Amino acid sequence: MKFLLILVLTAFLVGCVKTTPEETIPDKPGETPSSSITDPPLTYEPEESGQTDGETTADETEPSAAPTETSQEDNAPEAVRIHPYAGDIFYFSQKPPAPNGEPIETYTALAALTFDFSAHPKWWISNYNSTVISHTDETVTINSTEYLRMVSDRVVYSVDSSFFQTPKGFTADEKPYLWVTRTYRHPTVSVEGTEYLTWIQLDNDSMVQLSFFGYAYDEDFENTILRPLLDSCRTWTDDIPFLLRFPSTESDPNIAVDLTLPVEWQWNNSSVADDMERMYTGRYSVKRMEFYPVLRSEVFEGYERLQYQGVPAPITGKTNDGLPYEIYTYDSVSEGDRSKVTWYFANIEHEDGYLMLSFLTFEDDPADYFDTVTLPVIESVHIEPAE
Asked: 210: which of 152, 172, 295, 374 fits an S-S bond (Cβ 3.0–4.6 Å)?
């Protein structure tokens, strides 16, 4: 049974190195209230560590707030939910290459994995380039040596289920996994390690490949690090809704927010969803959504610097759950490439408060982008008391 990695995931850390100019900080709102593909390569040359993460950019940014963890509960409609845990999402958006070709980038999420890295707080996780690194320095500096811990090629491969007849184990959603080992030599320091070339079966037709890396200073890497990570893994494939859950500890009442993310967007494990095609084609502005699961006491009508245009009459409607919403729309310009953008500030009424989410569309989007991609996200929002 296809298991929604419901990547319900959990807010997630994004520790990222910036590769694009910083966004301008706008005026802040007031205080918040109380398939079938080819066989995978059996030899994979891992990328060197030290890659930089993608940075979300646009001409404005949302109000500051601490990243929040996401979690899930059982018995959700249209999807099988998982028990709450800390995790980070890694996306797979490529199909295998044609003979002598490069992998085919679809710019949509074909599959995703999440792991519980809570036992490794000093590991640096980037879902932009599907890489995890660590350092041995107690105090990490710019000159600290990076040690590759995990990397994937972001490719979804076809699989014969017989390949997994004798798995090493099973993920949290009962998907078989296996690995082979080979010696790995660090590219810059005299340290040898072991690469665990790993495959996880997603369904009867597909699997993904990733590599984990252990070093001599790790104590029983296979049983104390690798197996617990793979056992914690949950999977998602694009034939089921990509449902995320975000609990809040800042609202009164305390709430949990669910929403369904389109396959064109990639959650950055913090507070932002980025446009996958814009991100992987090197565009400056890539942010599509930003929000914090906090109820506000008043409707937010937009940043002051946008209100010089005059506060527009809101777009109104109701979510799939029947919650009323108001959406305030403003035209603006991206500071990086000077392209035209449109902001949407959506306020969803819940009891005596309002959940605010912001969205962006760009001048080169299809004319119906908001109606076909963004609005369904707003209408999918589900709010309930947090336990």
From this structure: 152
